[in-house]
Design goal:
seven-stranded mixed beta sheet; two-stranded antiparallel sheet; alpha/beta; about 180 residues; 11 strands; single chain
């Protein structure tokens, strides 16, 4: 039986954090759906570090098509959820459908992968995050704490059904652990 994976994102998603999980899941034979606020070609971005700068820089990267709008998602049709980072989380968390999507995966104990700035999305369901442990990009530490979770300093962390990663360099371990939860 092929697993069905939902990736929720939007414009300004970090390119590696959507392409790596998308293709890795396809490689496993999973049926993968990319959802965004509306069906469109999403503009990804590349986040990288430049010597002398205290934060990352952002450059336009590749386009990738979304397959369905958040409002049209029935989360019960999916076996796992991936939330990539970048800047997309700061606005997809405002979508009215997002809390219901998240609730389904956590209440049904289905695998959830959240990397980098995805913590901004998880923070919209504080009742489900309270008492959890996860990691995220360092700048998202206040979001993790604000929703009642414990920020983990490690670049990769698994707590119950949640696999979390610090940033794109952690994708190999992140996807290994996510796929392990699916099987």
């Amino acid at each position: 039986m092929s697993r069905k994976i939902l990736i929720v994102t939007g414009d300004a998603v970090e390119a590696l954090e959507i392409f790596y999980p998308y293709y890795r899941c396809l490689e496993e034979g999973f049926d993968v759906t990319i959802a965004s606020p509306s069906i469109k070609k999403l503009q990804t971005v590349s986040h990288d570090f430049v010597e002398g700068m205290e934060t990352y820089v952002e450059k336009p990267a590749y386009g990738i098509d979304s397959h369905v709008a958040f409002a049209d998602i029935d989360p019960s049709e999916y076996d796992g959820l991936i939330i990539p980072g970048g800047r997309a989380p700061e606005y997809i968390r405002l979508d009215d459908a997002m809390p219901g999507i998240l609730r389904h995966f956590f209440e049904e104990n289905k695998p959830v992968g959240a990397i980098c700035h995805a913590a901004q999305v998880l923070a919209i369901v504080p009742d489900l995050m309270k008492g959890r442990e996860f990691t995220a990009y360092t700048a998202c530490r206040p979001d993790v704490s604000a929703c009642g979770a414990t920020y983990i300093e490690e670049p990769l962390h698994v707590h119950e059904n949640l696999v979390s990663g610090h940033a794109w360099p952690d994708l190999p371990g992140f996807m290994r652990e996510f796929i392990k939860l699916l099987k």
